[in-house]
Amino acid sequence: MNIGLVLSGGGARGIAHIGAIKALEEHGIYPSHIAGTSAGAVVGALYAGGCSWEEMLDFFKTTQIFSLNKYARNKPGLVDTDKFYDQFKSYLPKDSFETLQKPLYITATNLLDGTLKVFHRGELIRPVLASAAVPGIFAPVKIKNGYYVDGGALNNFPVDLIQMYCDRIVGVYVNPFEKIKSKTSSTPITSWKGSTIS
Prior knowledge:
Layout: E1 3-7, H1 16-26, E2 33-37, H2 39-48, H3 53-62, H4 85-91, E3 104-110, E4 115-119, H5 125-131, E5 141-143, E6 146-150, E7 168-172, E8 189-190
Parallel strand pairs: 1-2, 1-7, 2-3, 7-8
Antiparallel strand pairs: 3-4, 3-6, 5-6
């Protein structure tokens, strides 16, 4: 049975995704496909790349977002998103979706035309950085001819990206003040409160 894992955006609350993954594995649940956006794209990429929950937690503990050497110069935003590339590279040495242990789908918003872009092939790290680039705080990430920011702006819970591949979906939604409904899913969706499985 294929089990999909969907990880929402949520800024700092995205660290809760790691606890949910740990709980799933303790119950013998290992997702076959992953979709994520914003903080969920970061955790999803690390998990799909083979990082343990301890390694993912270490990543968040050691990432200094507002250190002086990361401030943006001549770019919109306070923080230069591109300056996180090397830190990601130390956890994801093969910068490619094709080298991941699990299929991964992430979203980012193209500022030039206001459309949502789904990334699941080719270069990995820059799309992950783009997906987590909250506008106004992080500078947009240039990928080919587009400038991309937080995928959560248009789709903060991308169940639709993997539901066709999976028999069941486990979703971790860390923005509890909004109601989540599956649009047209025939895939069973299970819901937990708190760190929300949907």
